[in-house]
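Fresh eyes needed here. I'd like your take on this protein's tokenised backbone:
***
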Amino acid sequence: MHPNAVILALVLLGNLMLPLISAQNAGFVKSPMSETKLTGDTFELYCDVVGNPTPEIQWWYAEINRADSFKQLWDGARKRRVTINTAYGANGVGVLGITRLTLEDSGTYECRASNDPKRNDLRQNPATTWIRAQATISVLQKPKINATDEIVLTGESPVKPVTLQCNLTTAHTPHRESFWVKNGAEIKNTRTELKHTSYRIVKPRADDSGEYMCVYTFDMAPNANATIEVKAKPAIHGHKRSENKNEGENAMLYCKSVGYPHPTWTWRKMDGASYEDINNSTGRFFITIRDNYTELNILKLDILSDPGVYQCNATSVIGNTAETTILRVRSNLAPLWPFLGVLAEIIILVVIIVVYERRKNPDDIIEDDEPAVPMKTNSTNNHKDKNIRQRNAK
């Protein structure tokens, strides 16, 4: 056989064997974890698998004590409370989520994965073509907590204290302790073992508004909580009163506020006697909004159209507040104005000196071409007077 033919045959054989050599059975990198939840909560289960080719992922469910009756789950099942998201790449990743949990959602959830070419053949035994990982979800009845209704801070004077209260009336197991949370952060020195707990705001202001929660902890169950909203009209406490820039530069105006809920922000500019919405026909205006903060960025300032009074307006369901910023735009020659002023003063001074010298009285100036004349003195008269006195004496 020709040597080249032998080499070609070996290459073809290698190509045929390559899929067999590089093939890899499915295996779990991350399996779903069992959890205990309360009614009304949400849970998510994660499943990460490897293999070559990338394995397919499915989600199955069985009721408690009925592990032999698994049913496949689909995206949108249980009145659209079930969501299934799957991504395939080097790995296969699946996420199962269920919202607004009920007691009937308790059970065993199973992630199945397979890259067997015959995995969907009904004649095959799924136990041999699919690998499985299970998690048990236990859903407990949420404890009943009586809580204060929402509170609206009016800002009236004198300021009256505000007290938030919660009372744990029903629970599946005895609670351990309770504490208060504001906007996701625990409030210090609020932990107690009492079922009835309260939090007092002595002098409530706009920055005391927010989302408060009383949280009850349990030894053998998830935490339970109740939410109390304390609302207030937005109060702008941070903004630029004025901004000075040169033409062609960029300007950034901003406003910060306190108050809950977070406001809707708008920017306007004074046009004559009233404020008008920002005209972005030039594409140079950009507004950024993040909860209680907003920015107005203006690119390449125009000395004719951009100077003026700008207003940021914060509006919520409780009320609205506005503040203004004055934007001044200087000419590019502005840095030269001090020098030009000094130069102008020097020029004016020189002109005054020259004019003064030219207008001097000619009698004050001695002309060089006039002949020198001896000046008369009173010596002759003195001699005459002396002679007259001598004659009279004789």
